[in-house]
């Protein structure tokens, strides 16, 4: 005779986190590489002594190597990494929901678990921003996931695709002025020609640690509050929900055609969409400053094409995982990068621990002495440290500290598998 979970246990969760045997390579591999892309894209926050241009994001001074690095990052990373992050977060949310319902939890109980997790992500984000990084994205995605989880976790695949399509159309509709200026050739008609350098909002150049913390928390609060209505255009999450329902990354063999077409179309669109902004930023294309500033025609094009670019990257990771399934799955490099993906929250926070105190003016101030290229090299080094640490934890069967804390807060005191983490 079998019994189903009831009472408090049923209300909290029918089971704990994913077991090692349930994890697929592609999502973890994608998260591991994604963290390298994120730490690279965040480098501009810390170049607080450099002269910034109209974009407010990258410096406009430096060596030829710095210029090449800026060009590559604008084309391949800026605005492409966060759609990838959002997709994977949505994918992980739906995975968690489906595991709970498959184990016997009601839809309401599983949704309640996700809400609790999202609320704790907001808390994690607030602490992260106060102490280290104003650009924290955990809280923002926590708010978005609260809304989307409530509205869409229990919806059918068709409903998710319709909602995602509407979200894409809303993205375009909100930018009609910028797109009109782009299509009409009047590139300076919209946009901010003197966008404030991101280093100011992120307080990297502030010498007073308390003042820096106040600025960071204010910036984070604005970003996170924006998540309350940014869900209207959160197509990335919805595509992640849909893909998880169909196990696209867990079973890439059944979805090779979809993955190949998504990679073949999404990656080139993403790269080409960022190309005009990169050309203008480095001075190889003379355009009005407003065109590449906040809300400008060219910067909007780069932002809108970030969605297909991010989805294309996801598809590439799925195809890569498919190739590795037939050989190379156990290679140390693959295991190590996947281990970072399993501990993505811990590694993401570790980046800030190694970045902020070393680079900020309130710390050692190294950010004043680096350029785009040397900062990128520093970022790669930071990521490699997390790879080594995650690999060591993987071999010892230990989870990441942030994942362990989040799991304890979400699931309570029930025993949990030590080699897995909720995706972030």
TrEMBL record:
Keywords: Membrane, Transmembrane, Transmembrane helix. The chain crosses the membrane at residues 81-98, 119-152, 220-242, 263-285, 297-321, 345-364, 370-392. The keyword Amino-acid biosynthesis does not apply. InterPro entries: Bact_Transport_Assoc (IPR052529), DUF418 (IPR007349). Residues 243-412 form the DUF418 domain. The keyword Transmembrane helix applies. This is Membrane protein YeiB.
């Amino acid at each position: 005779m079998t019994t189903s979970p009831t009472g408090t246990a049923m209300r909290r969760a029918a089971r704990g986190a994913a077991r090692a045997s349930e994890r697929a390579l592609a999502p973890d591999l994608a998260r591991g590489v994604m963290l390298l892309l994120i730490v690279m894209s965040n480098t501009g926050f810390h170049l607080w002594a450099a002269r910034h241009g109209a974009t407010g994001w990258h410096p406009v001074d430096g060596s030829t190597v710095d210029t090449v690095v800026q060009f590559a990052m604008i084309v391949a990373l800026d605005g492409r990494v966060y759609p990838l992050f959002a997709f994977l977060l949505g994918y992980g949310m739906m995975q968690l929901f489906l595991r709970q319902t498959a184990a016997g939890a009601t839809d309401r109980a599983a949704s309640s678990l996700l809400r609790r997790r999202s609320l704790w992500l907001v808390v994690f984000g607030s602490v992260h921003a106060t102490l280290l990084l104003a650009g924290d994205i955990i809280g923002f995605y926590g708010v978005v996931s609260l809304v989307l989880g409530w509205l869409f976790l229990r919806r059918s695949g068709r409903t998710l695709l319709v909602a995602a399509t509407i979200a894409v159309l809303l993205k375009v509709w909100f930018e009609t002025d910028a797109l009109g200026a782009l299509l009409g050739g009047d590139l300076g008609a919209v946009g901010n020609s003197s966008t404030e350098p991101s280093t100011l909002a992120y307080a990297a150049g502030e010498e007073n640690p308390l003042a820096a913390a106040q600025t960071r928390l204010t910036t984070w609060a604005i970003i996170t509050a924006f998540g309350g209505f940014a869900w209207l255009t959160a197509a990335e999450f919805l595509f992640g929900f849909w893909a998880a329902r169909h196990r696209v990354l867990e079973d890439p063999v059944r979805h090779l055609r979809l993955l190949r077409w998504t990679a073949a179309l999404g990656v080139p669109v993403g790269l080409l969409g960022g190309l005009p902004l990169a050309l203008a930023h480095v001075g190889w294309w003379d355009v009005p400053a407003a065109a590449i500033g906040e809300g400008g025609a060219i910067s909007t094009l780069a932002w809108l094409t970030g969605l297909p670019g991010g989805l294309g990257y996801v598809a590439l990771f799925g195809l890569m995982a498919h190739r590795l399934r037939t050989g190379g799955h156990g290679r140390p490099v693959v295991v190590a990068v996947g281990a970072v993906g399993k501990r993505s929250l811990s590694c993401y926070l570790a980046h800030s621990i190694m970045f902020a105190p070393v680079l900020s003016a309130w710390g050692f101030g190294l950010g004043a002495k680096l350029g785009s290229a040397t900062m990128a090299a520093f970022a790669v080094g930071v990521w490699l440290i997390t790879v080594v640490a995650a690999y060591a934890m993987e071999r010892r069967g230990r989870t990441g500290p942030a994942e362990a804390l989040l799991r304890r807060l979400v699931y309570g005191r029930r025993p949990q598998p030590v080699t897995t983490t909720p995706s972030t």
